[in-house]
Amino acid sequence: AALDRLKAAPAFLAQATATLEEPPLVFVDSALAALGGGGELIARAVSALRDTAPGMAGEFEAAGREALEALTGFGRALGTDILPSDDPRAYAVGEEQFERRLHHEHAIRGGAPELWRYGMHLIEETEERLKATARRLDGSMDWRAHIERLRESAPARDVLSAYRDEAERARRFLEAHALVSATRIPLEITATPPFLQSLVPFAAYQPPPVELGGPALFFVTPPSDGTVAVQCVHEIPSIVVHEAYPGHHVQVTAAQALRSEVRRHVRTPVNVEGWALYAENLMFEAGYFATPEAQLFHLNDLLWRAVRIIVDVGLHTRDMTPGDAVNRMTETLPMERRKAEAEVRRYCAMPTYQLSYAIGRRDLLALRDSWRARAGASAPLEEFHRELFTYGGLPFALARWGMGLDE
Question: What is the CA angle 216-201-183, rounded to 5?
C-alpha cells in the first residue's frame, strides 16, 4: 500500500499542476512552506520501508526518487508557472457559503453576525478574568507581561518526561474526581517527527489506528536549535488536558468503541474541538490548574480561541484581509507575528473550523445546563459525559435532540 502511494505521487502532482488556476496567494505560500516537510517525509518513509521489506528495497528507492523529483517540479511550478490570483481575498467563501457550512456541517443555528457578537463578548469576559488572575501574581504587571515572562520557564526535566508526568497526573485526577471515565487505550507520548515539526510547534494528538491496533500518539515538539519555542512548564497542563485527559484521547477512543459506524466516523469539529476546550474548562472548575501561573495560561488559551471566532468570521464574511487578521491576533494576544501568520494561513483555508473550539465549548456548556435542569444539581457529571459520548462526534444539536433536551 505504501509503495502504491509513492508510485501515485508523480501523477497526482502533475494533475495538480495542470489543474490549478489563479489560486489564492495565501494558499501558494502555505504549499511552498510545506514542501520541505513533504520531501523529508518521502525520504524517511523510503528509508523505513526499505529496511522493513528488504526484498522491495529497489522498488521503494526508485519510487521515492520519482516522488521527490515530482515534488521538486511542483514546487518550481508554484514558484514560477502557476500565477496566483490578484484578488487578495480570493480565499474567502462569503457569508452565504460560510453559513451553509455552519448549518449543514455543524448544525449551528446562529449565523455569522451572532457568532461575531459572541466572540467579542467572550474576548471581553476572558480579558477581565486574565487581569484578575494577573493581579494575584503581581498587581504592577499587565497580564501579557506575565505571559511573556513565564514563557521562559522551561520544565525542570526534559520536555517529554514533563508531558508524561502531567498526563499521568491528569489521568489520576479524573479517576479521583469521577469526572469522566478515563480510557484504557494506551497513549504514547513521543517526539514529533521532523517532517511534521513545522506544522506542530508544540503538541498534537494522533488517534490509535483501530484496524491495525497500537496506541494513540501524543506528539510533542521539543525545543531545538532555537527554531522551536521553549515549552513553558505552566502551559503544559492545559495542553495535556486538551489533547489527552479528558480531551481528545478520551473522547476519540470512546467514539471508536461505539457500535454505530455513523457515530464512530461522522464528526464535526464543533463537537471534537469543542469537547477538548470544554475539557479544559471542566478541569479548571474541578481545581486541576492549581497555581495562578497555570490558570493564567489556561485563560490565555481560552482568549486565543475567542479571537479565532472573530478572525474566522472576519476573513470569510467581513472583508478582513490576512494582514488585518494577523494584526488582530498580535494586538489581542501575546503572540509572535510569525506564529500568527502561520495561524492565519490555516484559517483562510478552513472556514468555520477555527470558531469550532469556542462555539463548541459554549454549546456544550449550554447542553450541560439543560441536562442538569432535568437530572438535578446533585447528579454526577460523569453520567452526563457518559451519555454524551454515545453520540460520538455528531453535532451537539443532534445530541441534544437524542437526549430529549431539545428546546
Answer: 20
